[in-house]
Design goal:
Elements: H1 2-23, H2 48-56, E1 58-62, H3 67-70, H4 91-101, E2 105-111, H5 140-150, E3 154-159, H6 172-188, E4 194-196, E5 203-205, E6 212-214, H7 224-234, E7 239-241, E8 249-250, E9 265-266, E10 289-290, E11 293-298, H8 316-325, E12 332-336, H9 347-364, E13 373-376, E14 400-401, E15 410-428, E16 436-445, E17 448-455, E18 462-481, E19 486-493
Parallel strand pairs: 1-2, 1-12, 2-3, 3-4, 4-7, 8-11, 11-12
Antiparallel strand pairs: 5-6, 9-10, 13-15, 14-19, 15-18, 15-19, 16-17, 16-18
Helix pairs in contact: 4-5, 4-9, 6-7, 8-9
Bound molecules: beta-L-fucopyranose (FUL).
């Protein structure tokens, strides 16, 4: 009986679908009425490799080289390689610390401005191979890349274009040298998720003994297009950083603070590092290119370890603030954790990282939307796959969206009891482009809606701390959108604990 009823229902459903489809334009004929077409993407769009990078959200920098032992931030390039002498280098401790901190990857300074290579490059003597560490047979890049793999996090390298050691810096021969080194890193250490091209360029240095000032024209000297081609060819999935991309951009400061707003788009065509006046901090809207921001900042005042800064490690609360203003503004956070002279992350820094993780987890652990009723004002084709439920399924690829033309919809979250909200989280379905241009949230109070937050850009993720609001209902209003909104997630949380 059940089978017959099921079959009958299925047959009736099919007929209804056929009749309805007959009434639709032929391009829609392949779709059933229960599955209206997804909204068209709104360009510019992220590439698959950029989408993967967006998902990382929080990863770390490891600044480690001769500077760690000479107590400098910028080595001159004349260091005796024997100064590089970690007493207890432990790549597993470093990668494990990052993993426990919740980082998705680490980027190692394979070569900083001093030109000293943490791997035994075949093209220079200024490297670990001439240090006493591991009897001159050590390779920090190898140990770090292996440890990252063991700990299940991704690995990337920083290769400074400015090289204060190399005799040819400033001449065409240096570019060949630089590219040979890049090839070593891209071919000998397994997959890299990123190559990070620093923007500090030229100035005085050792330069093979010349000890002089060498200025270069950073718009032409490096022929970046040629270098980027090598990365694309040898490591097609890797994303590249420079202050203007090509895959992600600098946020314009080293404090880790993204602009408000911080659009993922920028108006650059042939972006040349160092030669742009684009608004890196806020991005540009509308923008011709998808070029999202990375916020880089150190857990200490300097990028390298200095014992004198042991008392100035950022607190968990400071790190959480930075998180809200970086990841919480649609950017990625690249937090530097410099190893000390042992070659390990100091305990003070580890404690700060653990406290920061606890703050994040406590703040974002219990989404009040989970147990609430979600009432979207409009749903695309009335289809469940585009319905309000999608904003709380924890899947960044599913989303609530509306019919064409419905650009400013609302969605109400009804808790059924008074709750106190202190932190708001929003996410757009990034594969469809950045579509929402303004939004606001209200609380229901004294029989009317009262605004509690508003903003413009959302992108990968928005986190907004608000004055605690106790209410039974919250309303999200999309107030401006370039194309029908595609909201992937909405989170409402209790006020985060102060540390
Ligand atoms: C800057 C460099 O000059 C600093 O030493 C550091 O590496 C930072 C991440 O980038 O441009």
């Amino acid at each position: 009986m059940m089978i017959i009823a099921d079959n009958w229902l299925a047959a009736a459903g099919r007929w209804a679908a056929v009749l309805l489809l007959a009434a639709l334009p032929s391009s829609r004929a392949a779709l059933s009425p229960a599955a209206p077409a997804a909204p068209a993407p709104h360009p510019p769009l992220p590439t698959p490799r950029q989408l993967q990078w967006h998902e990382m959200e929080y990863y770390g920098f490891v600044h480690f080289t001769v500077n760690t032992f000479t107590d400098k931030e910028w080595g001159y390039g004349d260091e005796d390689p024997s100064v590089f002498a970690p007493t207890d280098f432990d790549a597993d401790q470093i990668a494990g610390t990052a993993r426990e901190a919740g980082m998705a990857g680490l980027i190692l300074t394979a070569k900083h401005h001093d030109g000293f290579c943490l791997w035994p490059s075949a093209y220079t003597e200024h490297s670990v191979k001439n240090s006493r560490w591991r009897g001159g047979r050590g390779d920090v890049v190898r140990e770090m890349s292996d440890a990252c793999r063991r700990h299940g996090i991704r690995f990337g390298v920083y290769l400074s274009p400015w090289d204060r050691n190399h005799a040819d810096y400033g001449r065409p021969a240096y570019i060949e040298y630089y590219r040979r080194q890049l090839r070593e890193l891209l071919t000998q250490y397994g997959p890299l998720f990123t190559v990070w091209f620093d923007g500090a360029n030229g100035g005085d240095g050792y330069y093979g003994g010349a000890r002089e000032r060498r200025n270069i024209d950073n718009r032409t000297y490096y022929d970046w297009a040629g270098t980027w081609r090598i990365v694309r060819e040898l490591m097609p999935d890797a994303v590249m950083f420079s202050d203007v991309g090509p895959d992600f951009r600098w946020v314009g400061n080293e404090r880790g603070i993204a602009g408000e707003p911080c659009w993922a788009t920028l108006n650059i065509g042939d972006g040349v590092p160092g030669g742009t006046r684009a608004n890196l901090n806020q991005g540009e809207r509308p923008g011709t290119h998808w070029l999202p921001a990375e916020c880089d900042v150190s857990i200490r005042p300097g990028w390298f370890y200095h014992a004198a800064e042991d008392a100035r490690v950022k607190t968990p609360a400071q790190l959480f603030d930075i998180y809200l203003q970086s990841v919480g503004r649609g950017a990625c956070l690249n937090l530097n954790i410099p190893p000390d002279r042992r070659g390990r992350i100091p305990e003070i820094d580890r404690r700060a990282l653990a406290g920061f993780r606890r703050l994040r987890e406590a703040a974002l652990g219990a989404n009040l939307v989970a147990g609430a009723r979600i009432e979207p004002g409009q749903v695309r084709g009335g289809a469940a796959r585009f319905g309000g439920e999608m904003v709380r399924d924890g899947d960044r690829n599913t989303y609530w969206t509306t019919d064409e033309g419905v650009l400013t919809p609302e969605l109400v979250v009804a808790f059924g009891r008074p709750v106190t909200v202190g932190l708001i989280e929003l996410r757009e379905a990034l594969a469809l482009g950045q579509r929402i241009e303004a939004f606001a949230l209200d609380q229901w109070r004294d029989q009317r809606w009262i605004e509690i937050a508003s903003g413009t850009s959302i992108g990968n993720r928005r986190l907004i701390r608000i004055e605690p609001a106790t209410t039974e209902r919250v309303r999200l209003r999309i107030t401006r959108a370039a194309a029908v909104p595609a909201l992937a997630e909405l989170g409402l949380y209790a006020p985060p604990a102060a540390d």
